[in-house]
TrEMBL record:
Name this polypeptide is given: Glutamate dehydrogenase
The UniProt record lists the keyword Cell membrane: no
Binding of NAD(+), residues: 197, 231
Subunit structure: Homohexamer.
NCBIfam families, sorted: PRK09414.1
Residue runs in coiled coils: none
Annotated substrate binding sites: 78, 99, 102, 153, 383
Length: 457
């Protein structure tokens, strides 16, 4: 691959998958699957384009737009759009590659893809964001559709942006169809979609807890460290509180907000205040400085992630961005007594951190790790349910969608568990490798479909 440019994030995701496949008996039982690995690791299509738009001063601006249509073996390409200055092809390829196998684990008919732009919506007016979205969709609309490629939101792309993108697509194509997910509830969206990733993450971990303790424990009474303070972190925190757990941290790109003194947990009201702040693109340092309740109850650690700041903790839920748990932080979490770590973010842990978690598990240690492609699949699962509702022109209740989400997360957990037991050698009493189980289960499902289609032989 020396003729290719360096793509560190994609290479990390690829190596993480391959390392678990190599450590299992999969290629021993099915040596032909190595050929499938070569094929599935290259996107079916990569689309790059310029996005020209006008700011409020009437000045011309230009950004780069991307869509990586990675794999359509199981259904239309499916994956979010990210608007953030850090966006580049390596990041989108890593996200799209992960999305293939995550979507496979949901059991729904969805392929894998990802897209976005290096546009930064922070500090931009609604009109500037609208003009950017319309220009972005002018090109993207040529390549997507309800049965071809169905994008969703991601970092920097929330309900406002999805609305502008959907309106532009409808105008350019003269079609009202379920081409985007995360739509408003009154125009084709699904109830429970905003909550889905955070709720699903907690449902998945609850199954980990119940399996390990034979049903004797749940989240009740457990100290839970959460990073991030966006959609995923907010709803994960609210579900933890609902189940009787204690939320001890939230964070953003500028620092971490951590319980101080004798305080036991963030409250529902405090999480909701933070949600309101984030809707205005504010930072946690602002609410800590301006709200006396936050000043007295929490300490704000500038430039830090929460993992080494929270003291003793039972559960860690990285829910911000990629590579947010380092090897040193993984060791710190184990020293703090953490028993469960599950990623609400995509590739939330570095390879060094994963190695620490997996070594501890094999040695009979306390920590049990679940990767993002399994633990955070609730968001795309409900996006798939939104697609189904759009196709049928129906709308399910919140309770119906939440029940389907809970069932998908339970089924996904059992698939990861059973696959690990089938392919990964383990000592008596050793917890199964959920990262290995997730990688193998998703990989096998996708490349078997590709083989049936004649994509490799």
């Amino acid at each position: 691959m020396s003729n290719l440019p360096s793509e560190p994030e994609f290479e990390q995701a690829y190596n993480e998958l391959v390392s678990t496949l190599d450590a299992s008996s999969l290629f021993e039982k099915h040596p032909e699957y190595r050929t499938g690995l070569k094929v599935v690791s290259i996107p079916e299509r990569v689309i790059q384009f310029r996005v020209v738009w006008e700011d409020d001063k009437g000045e011309l601006q230009v950004n780069r737009g991307f869509r990586v249509q990675f794999n359509s073996a199981l259904g239309p390409y499916k994956g979010g759009l990210r608007f953030h200055p850090s966006v580049n092809l390596s990041i989108l390829k890593f996200l799209g590659f992960e999305q293939i196998f995550k979507n496979a684990l949901t059991g729904l008919s969805m392929g894998g893809g990802k897209g976005g732009s290096d546009f930064d919506p922070k500090g931009r007016s609604d009109n500037e964001i609208r003009r950017f979205c319309q220009s972005f969709m002018r090109e993207l609309s040529k390549h997507i559709g309800a049965d071809t490629d169905v994008p969703a939101g991601d970092i920097g792309v929330g309900g406002r942006e999805i609305g502008y993108l959907f309106g532009a697509y409808k105008n350019y194509r003269n079609l009202w169809e379920g081409v985007l997910t995360g739509k408003g509830a009154t125009w084709g969206g699904s109830l429970a979609r905003p909550e889905a990733t955070g709720y699903g993450l907690v449902y998945y971990v609850n199954h980990m807890i119940q399996y390990r303790t034979n049903g004797a424990e749940t989240f009740a009474g457990k100290r839970v460290a959460i990073s991030g303070s966006g959609n995923v972190a907010q709803y994960a925190a609210l579900k933890v509180l609902e189940l009787g757990g204690y939320v001890v941290s939230l964070s953003d790109s500028k620092g971490a907000l951590v319980l101080d003194g004798d305080a036991k947990s963030f409250s529902k009201e405090e999480v909701e205040k933070i949600a309101s702040l984030k809707l205005k693109h504010g930072y946690l340092t602002e609410i800590h400085a301006s709200d006396s309740e936050f000043t007295s109850k929490f300490k704000y650690v500038e430039g830090a992630r929460p993992w080494l700041q929270v003291g003793s903790v039972d559960v860690a839920l990285p829910s911000a961005t990629q590579n947010e748990v380092s090897k040193e932080e993984a060791e710190g979490l184990i020293a703090a007594g953490c028993k469960y770590i599950a990623e609400g973010s995509n590739m939330g842990s570095t390879q060094g951190a994963i190695d620490v978690f997996e070594a501890n598990r094999k040695e009979g240690g306390e920590i049990w790790y679940a990767p993002g492609k399994a633990a955070n699949m609730g968001g795309v699962a409900v996006s798939g349910l939104e697609m189904a509702q759009n196709s049928s022109r129906i709308s399910w209740t919140f309770e119906e969608v939440d029940a389907k989400l809970a069932n998908i997360m339970e089924t996904g957990f059992k698939i990861c568990l059973d696959t690990a037991k089938s392919y990964i050698p383990a000592k008596e009493g050793e917890l199964p490798s959920l990262v290995g189980g997730a990688n193998i289960a998703g990989f096998v499902k996708v490349i078997e479909a590709m083989h049936n289609h004649g994509d490799w032989y």
